[in-house]
Protein backbone atom coordinates (compact mmCIF):
# COMPACT_ATOMS: atom_id res chain seq x y z
CA UNK A 1 0.00 0.00 0.00
CA UNK A 2 2.58 2.60 -1.05
CA UNK A 3 -0.03 5.28 -1.85
CA UNK A 4 -1.71 4.88 1.53
CA UNK A 5 1.63 4.98 3.35
CA UNK A 6 2.65 8.05 1.40
CA UNK A 7 -0.62 9.78 2.31
CA UNK A 8 -0.25 8.85 5.98
CA UNK A 9 3.33 10.12 6.03
CA UNK A 10 2.28 13.40 4.40
CA UNK A 11 -0.55 13.87 6.89
CA UNK A 12 1.80 13.13 9.76
CA UNK A 13 4.26 15.77 8.51
CA UNK A 14 1.44 18.28 8.12
CA UNK A 15 0.19 17.59 11.65
CA UNK A 16 3.73 17.90 13.01
CA UNK A 17 4.24 21.24 11.23
CA UNK A 18 0.88 22.47 12.49
CA UNK A 19 1.89 21.64 16.09
CA UNK A 20 5.28 23.28 15.53
CA UNK A 21 3.73 26.50 14.19
CA UNK A 22 1.24 26.57 17.06
CA UNK A 23 4.08 26.10 19.57
CA UNK A 24 6.01 28.98 18.00
CA UNK A 25 2.96 31.25 18.16
CA UNK A 26 2.43 30.35 21.81
CA UNK A 27 6.09 31.04 22.59
CA UNK A 28 5.89 34.46 20.92
CA UNK A 29 2.74 35.33 22.87
CA UNK A 30 4.34 34.21 26.15
CA UNK A 31 7.30 36.50 25.44
CA UNK A 32 4.92 39.38 24.67
CA UNK A 33 3.10 38.76 27.94
CA UNK A 34 6.41 38.80 29.82
CA UNK A 35 7.30 42.18 28.30
CA UNK A 36 3.84 43.53 29.11
CA UNK A 37 4.19 42.28 32.71
CA UNK A 38 7.41 44.26 33.09
CA UNK A 39 5.81 47.38 31.60
CA UNK A 40 2.78 47.09 33.87
CA UNK A 41 5.05 46.57 36.87
CA UNK A 42 7.02 49.74 36.10
CA UNK A 43 3.87 51.76 35.55
CA UNK A 44 2.40 50.39 38.80
CA UNK A 45 5.52 51.36 40.73
CA UNK A 46 5.27 54.93 39.38
CA UNK A 47 1.60 55.17 40.34
CA UNK A 48 2.26 53.81 43.84
CA UNK A 49 5.02 56.38 44.36
CA UNK A 50 2.70 59.14 43.19
CA UNK A 51 0.01 58.00 45.60
CA UNK A 52 2.42 57.79 48.54
CA UNK A 53 4.39 60.95 47.87
CA UNK A 54 1.65 63.31 46.75
CA UNK A 55 -0.56 63.38 49.84
CA UNK A 56 -1.32 67.06 49.28
CA UNK A 57 -2.59 66.60 45.73
CA UNK A 58 -6.30 67.02 44.99
CA UNK A 59 -8.62 64.15 45.86
CA UNK A 60 -9.76 63.73 42.26
CA UNK A 61 -6.12 63.30 41.17
CA UNK A 62 -5.56 60.63 43.82
CA UNK A 63 -8.78 58.89 42.74
CA UNK A 64 -7.59 58.92 39.14
CA UNK A 65 -4.23 57.39 40.14
CA UNK A 66 -5.99 54.77 42.25
CA UNK A 67 -8.28 53.89 39.35
CA UNK A 68 -5.28 53.61 37.03
CA UNK A 69 -3.56 51.34 39.54
CA UNK A 70 -6.65 49.13 39.82
CA UNK A 71 -6.84 48.98 36.02
CA UNK A 72 -3.21 47.83 35.91
CA UNK A 73 -3.91 45.11 38.46
CA UNK A 74 -6.94 43.99 36.48
CA UNK A 75 -4.92 43.90 33.25
CA UNK A 76 -2.12 41.96 34.96
CA UNK A 77 -4.65 39.42 36.27
CA UNK A 78 -6.12 38.90 32.81
CA UNK A 79 -2.61 38.42 31.40
CA UNK A 80 -1.88 35.86 34.11
CA UNK A 81 -5.01 33.94 33.14
CA UNK A 82 -3.97 34.05 29.47
CA UNK A 83 -0.47 32.90 30.40
CA UNK A 84 -1.94 30.00 32.38
CA UNK A 85 -4.09 29.00 29.39
CA UNK A 86 -1.06 29.16 27.11
CA UNK A 87 0.98 26.98 29.45
CA UNK A 88 -1.81 24.40 29.38
CA UNK A 89 -1.80 24.61 25.57
CA UNK A 90 1.98 24.02 25.55
CA UNK A 91 1.55 20.96 27.75
CA UNK A 92 -1.24 19.73 25.50
CA UNK A 93 0.96 20.10 22.43
CA UNK A 94 3.74 18.13 24.12
CA UNK A 95 1.34 15.38 25.02
CA UNK A 96 -0.12 15.37 21.51
CA UNK A 97 3.36 14.95 20.07
CA UNK A 98 4.13 12.16 22.56
CA UNK A 99 0.87 10.45 21.68
CA UNK A 100 1.68 10.61 17.98
CA UNK A 101 5.17 9.13 18.55
CA UNK A 102 3.83 6.34 20.77
CA UNK A 103 1.00 5.59 18.35
CA UNK A 104 3.51 5.29 15.51
CA UNK A 105 5.70 2.98 17.60
CA UNK A 106 2.71 0.86 18.63
CA UNK A 107 1.56 0.52 15.02
CA UNK A 108 4.99 -0.75 14.01
CA UNK A 109 4.73 -3.49 16.67
CA UNK A 110 1.14 -4.33 15.78
CA UNK A 111 1.89 -4.57 12.04
CA UNK A 112 4.33 -7.43 12.65
CA UNK A 113 3.16 -10.98 12.33
CA UNK A 114 2.44 -12.55 15.71
CA UNK A 115 4.59 -15.54 14.82
CA UNK A 116 7.61 -13.29 14.14
CA UNK A 117 7.38 -11.35 17.41
CA UNK A 118 9.92 -12.13 20.09
CA UNK A 119 8.98 -12.04 23.78
CA UNK A 120 10.89 -8.74 23.99
CA UNK A 121 8.74 -7.35 21.16
CA UNK A 122 5.56 -8.39 22.97
CA UNK A 123 6.79 -6.79 26.19
CA UNK A 124 7.80 -3.57 24.36
CA UNK A 125 4.40 -3.49 22.67
CA UNK A 126 2.63 -3.74 26.04
CA UNK A 127 4.86 -1.05 27.55
CA UNK A 128 4.21 1.25 24.60
CA UNK A 129 0.47 0.66 24.94
CA UNK A 130 0.66 1.48 28.66
CA UNK A 131 2.60 4.69 27.93
CA UNK A 132 0.06 5.64 25.26
CA UNK A 133 -2.81 5.15 27.69
CA UNK A 134 -0.99 7.28 30.27
CA UNK A 135 -0.53 10.11 27.75
CA UNK A 136 -4.18 9.90 26.68
CA UNK A 137 -5.27 10.11 30.34
CA UNK A 138 -3.00 13.15 30.89
CA UNK A 139 -4.50 14.85 27.84
CA UNK A 140 -7.96 14.05 29.15
CA UNK A 141 -7.04 15.60 32.50
CA UNK A 142 -5.84 18.78 30.76
CA UNK A 143 -9.08 19.02 28.83
CA UNK A 144 -11.00 18.56 32.09
CA UNK A 145 -8.95 21.35 33.73
CA UNK A 146 -9.61 23.67 30.79
CA UNK A 147 -13.32 22.93 30.94
CA UNK A 148 -13.43 23.63 34.69
CA UNK A 149 -11.57 26.93 34.17
CA UNK A 150 -13.99 27.91 31.41
CA UNK A 151 -17.02 27.12 33.56
CA UNK A 152 -15.62 28.98 36.57
CA UNK A 153 -14.96 32.06 34.42
CA UNK A 154 -18.58 32.06 33.27
TrEMBL record:
InterPro entries linked to this entry: bMERB_dom, F-actin_Monoox_Mical
Coiled-coil stretches: 23-50
Keyword Phosphoprotein in annotation: no
Statement: the UniProt record of this protein carries the keyword Membrane: yes
Keywords, ordered alphabetically: Coiled coil, Membrane, Monooxygenase, Oxidoreductase
BMERB domain mapped to chain residues: 13-154
PROSITE patterns attached to this UniProt entry: BMERB (PS51848)
Main location: membrane
A GO term, aspect molecular function: monooxygenase activity
Localization per Swiss-Prot or TrEMBL: Membrane
Domain of life: Eukaryota
PANTHER family xrefs: [F-ACTIN]-MONOOXYGENASE MICAL1 (PTHR23167:SF35), CALPONIN HOMOLOGY DOMAIN-CONTAINING PROTEIN DDB_G0272472-RELATED (PTHR23167)
UniProt name for this protein: MICA1 monooxygenase
Protein species of origin: Onychorhynchus coronatus (Royal flycatcher)
Native organism taxonomy: Eukaryota, Metazoa, Chordata, Craniata, Vertebrata
Amino acid sequence: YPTCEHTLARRAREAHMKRFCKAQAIQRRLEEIEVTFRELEQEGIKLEKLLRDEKGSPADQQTQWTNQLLYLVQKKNSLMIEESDLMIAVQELKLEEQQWQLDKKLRSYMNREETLKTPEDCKAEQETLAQLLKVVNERNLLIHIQEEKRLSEL
